[in-house]
Amino acid sequence: MAGRPSVPRDRSAPFWLYGRHPVVAALGNPARRHRRLVATAAAIAQLNGAFPGGLPLDPELTTAEAIARLLPPGAVHQGLALLVDPLSPPPLAAALAASAGPVVVLDQVTDPRNVGAVLRSAAAFGAAAVIVQDRHAPGESGAMARAAAGALDRVPLLRAVNLARTLGALKEAGLWVVGLEATAERTLAAAGLEGRRLALVLGAEDEGMRRLTREGCDVLVRLPQTRAVESLNVSVAAAVALYAVQAARLEALAA
Length: 255
Prior knowledge:
Elements: E1 15-18, H1 20-27, E2 34-39, H2 41-50, E3 60-61, H3 64-70, E4 80-84, H4 92-98, E5 103-107, H5 112-124, E6 129-133, H6 142-148, E7 157-160, H7 163-172, E8 176-180, E9 186-187, E10 198-203, H8 211-215, E11 219-222, H9 234-254
Parallel strand pairs: 2-3, 5-6, 5-10, 6-7, 8-10, 8-11, 9-11
Antiparallel strand pairs: 1-4, 2-4
């Protein structure tokens, strides 16, 4: 008998974060609503060290086995799990005003681990926000937060109902919209983008950017990779591009 089709999780429903980095970041984020914290004795001792002023809610002492039963099979929880509500993302204008860094736009990237890994790189290289589609992108989840290693609570994750319109809004805000495409003629370094604030647009690894997204870019560039591989994972490509942008910015400031 055929199995029942899976039902997507309600994006507004509480969900479990797990692992030290995601839990500590969420507990330290005043915008995050915390509902329940379960932890082993050893994990509670570590949390008390991270929050000398006191935890924002009382932990429930339990065993590693009991925590595992609350989570997806194989979840690496390190003795910590935190039930939270999804964050309410800020408006685009507020995110752009809060940081002068670049913006990452993901077109139809559906794997929560890839989105989480992009968030981690965005935090490492000073990005202002990561933007995903509203309908064709995963909601916040424990898997995304685990891959983000705390960045889910440090970098705004915005959702665009209409990605092409959002690219237009980024242009109006003064950003140069740069699409990464393996077949582009110019590399990112050779595109003459120094001194500009950028929005880096990446498509899904298998299909790339959709036509309207590609047409909404000011310029298409590629990363200077060899022919040893056909393409890079989208999260790896985002990390390389963000590093290149940050390195160029720091070099310009030092000049």
